[in-house]
Design brief:
The protein is an all-alpha fold. 75% of the residues lie in helices and 0% in strands. α4 runs parallel beside α7 and α4 packs antiparallel against α17. 57% of the residues are buried. The N terminus and C terminus are likely disordered.
């Protein structure tokens, strides 16, 4: 009797297996985040498309990647996490694989922009918010940091491989490689990913069965729009969304797709520039996990103040660092930018939980949508600036100034009163899920 009991108490909590397979799914989806920056030049050379034309497809991809997130979070409530993630992986693989047959720029927008954007958006950071919200009460900040780093790991793993495949076998081989990566993840998701702790007869990690809130069975669109309606009545939502919009502009929108072409403009080989972005991925893992750990211990507003402010300063210093040779100053920029890349996610998610309670995953989906709208603006705007001025310098300076503004916005967010219902203004009643969740989700 005592030996089996001891074994049960020491076994790994299922929440950690769910987190692990979520990490793998995010890594597989992140392969597609590595593609645009590497393939801009090959597509220009083969089809004669301008940077602005290719950037338009990237912009559509990034906008849908974000705008899909709140609806994906609601779909996960309605149909379950596993079904949504499997469908998203299949849609993403289809969009990427069919690009090898394209002959016109509108097909790039349709496949790379719409299909891949919708698929990867369904596995965006709303998945992180949903998994951490359902499966974890303790260690939420740390787990959200680790899962967010899954995207960085995908970039780390696939960016040099995409550049190598393009250099040795052409961009079509690189596109098919990312398709295979997405399909390889599907069996693991089907096998290990579960929707809620109650499905396995356990409580959330560090919590009680009462923390496993009943799923919302309303329509996905209705749930998403209701969450937006409630959140939009609050000042913290607009400050978080505004800061995250600028976060998207200064990372996924500008650096990710345009750093490699900008470096190539100054004579740096594409493979070297791709390797530098892979280094960003390495340090992003460390930075995001550390940020998650700090979020459990430090005022998240102060973390955002530091992250955005230092990021803005680094962008002001970037243009003179470009050149045909790799210098220590550029390596220092890459290391810092890696540490700061998505370190903003854990404190932003923590502030969403603090102000919006059980609605936080869907509300964070809307905040993340603003991130990707900003990314889309910068992805297209960066291409336009390059075509008009012949240089990316103005884009770096504008992004730096906006990051300083994001730092000011973040530190001005008021902390939520412990006795106030999370998720609404004082005059609004809590939602049924908030009432069920209680203070543990605050």
């Amino acid at each position: 009797m005592t030996a089996p009991a001891l074994t049960r108490t020491r076994r790994v909590h299922p929440a950690w297996w769910v987190a692990a397979v979520t990490f793998v799914a995010l890594v597989g989806a992140a392969a597609f985040r590595a593609v645009p920056g590497v393939l801009i030049d090959p597509l220009r050379e083969e089809f004669g498309w301008s940077v602005s034309t290719i950037s338009a497809a990237v912009a559509v991809n990034m906008a849908l990647y974000g705008l899909t997130a709140p609806f994906a979070a609601a779909l996960m409530e309605r149909f379950g996490v596993r079904r949504v993630v499997i469908g998203a992986l299949l849609l993403t693989a289809c969009g990427s694989g069919l690009t090898v047959f394209m002959t016109a720029s509108w097909q790039l927008v349709l496949l790379w922009g719409f299909l891949v954007g919708l698929g990867t958006g369904s596995m965006a950071l709303s998945l992180v918010a949903t998994v951490t919200g359902r499966w974890f009460v303790a260690r939420r900040g740390l787990v959200s940091g680790v899962l967010t780093a899954g995207g960085a790991t995908g970039q780390l793993v696939f960016l040099p491989l995409v550049a190598w495949a393009d250099a040795t076998a052409g961009w079509r081989a690189a596109s098919l490689g990312t398709t295979a990566a997405a399909l390889a993840v599907v069996p693991f998701v089907a096998w290990l990913l579960r929707d809620r702790p109650r499905d396995l007869g356990v409580a959330p990690y560090g919590g009680t069965p009462a923390d496993d809130v009943d799923p919302v069975r309303a329509g996905a669109a209705r749930t998403a729009l209701q969450a937006l309606t409630h959140a939009a009545r609050t000042r913290p939502f607009w400050l978080l969304a505004g800061g995250f919009l600028i976060c998207g502009m200064s990372t996924n929108g500008l650096v990710q797709p345009h750093f490699i072409p900008a470096a190539h403009d100054h004579g740096m080989p594409v493979t070297t520039a791709a390797g530098l972005l892979a280094v960003v991925g390495i340090f992003d893992i460390a930075g995001t996990v550390l940020s998650g750990w700090l979020t459990d211990r430090v005022d998240p507003r102060l973390l955002l103040l530091a992250y955005y402010g230092l990021r803005g300063l680094s962008l002001f210093l970037l243009p003179p660092l470009f050149g045909p040779e790799l210098h220590v100053s550029m390596v220092a920029f890459i290391v810092f930018y890696g540490l700061d890349w998505v370190a903003t996610v854990p404190p932003t998610l923590a502030l969403c939980r603090e102000h919006f309670g059980a609605r936080a995953p869907v509300v964070f989906g809307w905040v993340f949508a603003s991130h990707q709208v900003g990314a889309a603006i910068a992805a297209y705007g960066g291409g336009v600036i390059r075509d008009v001025t012949g240089s990316y310098d103005l884009a770096w300076f504008l992004a730096g100034a906006l990051c300083v503004a994001a730092a000011a916005m973040s530190v001005s967010i008021r902390r939520n009163r412990p006795d106030a219902p999370a998720g609404d203004d004082p005059g609004l009643p809590p939602s049924p899920t908030q009432a069920a969740a209680g203070s543990s989700h605050g």
